[in-house]
Amino acid sequence: MTKRDLGTCNTINASLLRWVEAQARLCQPDKIFWCDGSPEEKEILTAEAVAGGILLKLDQKKWPGCYYHRSNPNDVARVEQCTYICTPMQDEAGPTNNWMAPKEMYAKLHDLCAGSMRGRTMYVVPYLMGPAGSPLTKVGVELTDSIYVVLSMRIMARMGQVALEQLGDSDDFNRGLHTMLDVKPERRYIAHFPQDNTIISVGSNYGGNVLLGKKCLALRIGSYLGRNEGWMAEHMLILGVESPTGEKTYVAAAFPSACGKTNFAMMVPPAHFKGWKIWTVGDDIAWMKPGPDGRLYAINPEAGYFGVVPGTNSKSNPTAVQTISRDTIFTNVALTANGEVWWEGKDGPVPTECLDWRGQKWTPESKEKAAHPNSRFAAPMINNPVLDPLASDPKGVPISAIIFGGRRADTMPLVYQAFNWIHGVYVGATMGSEMTAAAAGSVGQVRRDPMAMLPFCGYNMGDYFRHWITMRKLIKFRQPRARPLRQRLAMARFCGWINLSWKRRMGCCHSASRAVRMASRSISASARVDVSSGWTTERFTTATPAIPAGKSSPWASANRFS
Is the per-residue pLDDT at 537 higher than 80? Predict the structure, then answer.
């Protein structure tokens, strides 16, 4: 393809062409650019973003392929108060979602979008959520006037011609429209229309609000589609634990945003546990559906990681450090004079002076943080040195256990085990976690966050719980009664490492390690249970009582293998 071909229409799909034409008449862009996902396109659009001051090029010797972006200071996190589920009846959205009738919201957004792209380019971004060819994969098309969104979507989704090929002549695709407007909070809406498979986002240019394949499609619309189609869209990491004998067990774990999912998904075994391996399938979202054999299978619908930067270093997450070392877009971290990025908790010395995330002079004596607490990296998952070989398998990976977790400083037990699937639904539904900087609000305040899905469930939460219970009937696989003793002892030894490793890296006690330990116990669950039980853990971040050497934990029963 020549440079002259870049940006030209590359589909004959009549439904898609009609929709793009209608949105172009509404938004009135100066031109339309159809994205194909090619390397040549990336080169041209990146150069344009740098020339326009939207991206800053970092020191390419130290940070090859990496760029820096600052968002508007009023646009630094998800805005749950501006996020709406628009269904014909308010009860369909439920009490945990903001609701507006579709007709009313469409009218409001029509007025805001009218002429909103004058003087700008409308980028047509076709993308896949999920591996190409997977029965769970969904096609989306986002129209946006933000080149930052285009370049980020290249990382976070399988973008371009691959999506148009999977779509073919079908009209079954998610319709997403994003326009920045003037990035004013009073004109900011992230609206979801589940019955129409449509998303419209206006007035923002921050990740979770505008990368429409991520939280908007993958969770809010995805959860609605999953209920109707017999699968589950969940706010969960997926990892594989491989023993020295080559046996691999996959686990899914739900934690609220900025509560350690990425660090959990990318753990690295120390040298004295030679032979043990952790494999990352995904760090944020899981789409799960029963397979032909009756087991629960999961795919990671994303193609990249959109992780919180502060605190990331070679001790807390060495895998992430390698992953973000190239081809990464950093947003709202600090910038040094020699073209490097910096954040609190980064390896190496603190700079004597730099520009903070607002572009203002910062020194170690400054009262404000240099990097915003919710500053982010967008990095391709192919950079991950421990990416699971099956991460892009269209069939997904078999899930043996589910973990529910959160950030808690006190009150809750370190970890406890659900009796069965139904009880697991209850403990997941009643989970509480401290709020973080990932969303606008009171950081540290404890709130109920069922299955870590409070901000992301695209329909009535009561119906969501009912869907979880219904899914139990669709999963027919029964776990064997017990593992051989040798295997169980090996897993116990490995989980003891996770216990210590997680405590050192995260400073947050034993909860994650025990969660994995109990996940391994699912293999020895009673055959009376239809599927592996749900597990729950709530992570302590402070005020964790030390356990003296030689003494057992008050929750020692969770350590035993039956």
Answer: no
